[in-house]
Amino acid sequence: MPVIFESDLPENVISIERRSQTWNGVTVEDVHEHANGGVLHSLLYENDTRFTVNLEEVGGLTEPRLKQNQACAREHAANHMALIPCGMHLWGFAQDLRYCRYGILIFDIPRLRERFEEDFMVQPFEEPQLRFTDHRVLALVRMLIDIPMDDSASTLLGDSLTAGVFALLSAPRKQVEEGGRLAPWQVKRVTEYMRDQLPRQIELKELASLIGQSQWHFCRAFKASTGVSPYQWQLEERVKLVQRLLLDSQTPLETIAEATGFNDSMHLIRTFKKRSGQTPGAWRRDNAMR
């Protein structure tokens, strides 16, 4: 989705820039707001269930409000969060704001209910929660907004992260239990399927359905069984496929990138170097001589 620069701006707001992507029934917005003075404006999406998290603020302290002129009763905390039910308005306030970055996650509740099945809990999303914090959710949101725009190779990563955020918010006041392990036959079935489907991008629900589990249970159990997330396992297999192609031919990197599910050769080079410590060209030269 393209970057959106808003034009109809509230008082004292200089610019608002939004980047958004959608995975797994959750739209994730990365919002950058520049201002010069006191601000008080709507945070939109009144007809959706949504979650906000403050990522950075310069100048005045930001404050979520359920009523325009009524201050939030809870004290400010760094990276504070709000969970707002569908049909409820949310306002953003700051006395002397210069810059604020925040994330907004908009939940497609019917779709999430279908995907999470028995793990879906609607109760936590029916009452507003303001200025709470959760370091686990914060870490997942930061990873989500760092995914490059329109990166089709990150479908499984986005699915896994949004599933994690939704599961943690569904039980915000208790520790989410560690998932059990998959049976060896389940690991074998899932990994063989992912390997056979390369380089096609696979959704998390597709893998979970192979062994009859919900997305959240599967994601936790897969990592407990293999030591890595489904996305990391798939990425490692794609890098191994790149290595085989590098050794078996003099095919150009752009062609190899397309054949292994990377957006382009630069995306392939960055990922390959991060995983192997070398560029594809250097790796090909070193290993061709062995």
Automatic annotation (TrEMBL):
The source's superkingdom equals Bacteria
Entry's PROSITE patterns? HTH_ARAC_FAMILY_1, HTH_ARAC_FAMILY_2
Gene Ontology MF term list: DNA-binding transcription factor activity; sequence-specific DNA binding
InterPro entries under this entry?
AraC_XylS_family_regulators, Homeodomain-like_sf, HTH_AraC, HTH_AraC-typ_CS
**HTH araC/xylS-type domain segment(s):** 188-286
SMART domains recorded: HTH_ARAC (SM00342)
**What SUPFAM superfamilies does the annotation carry?**
Homeodomain-like
Against Pfam families, the record matches this protein to: HTH_18
Q: Give the signal peptide range.
A: none
Keywords, alphabetical: DNA-binding, Transcription, Transcription regulation
Its protein name is Helix-turn-helix protein
**Organism, as annotated:** Neorhizobium alkalisoli
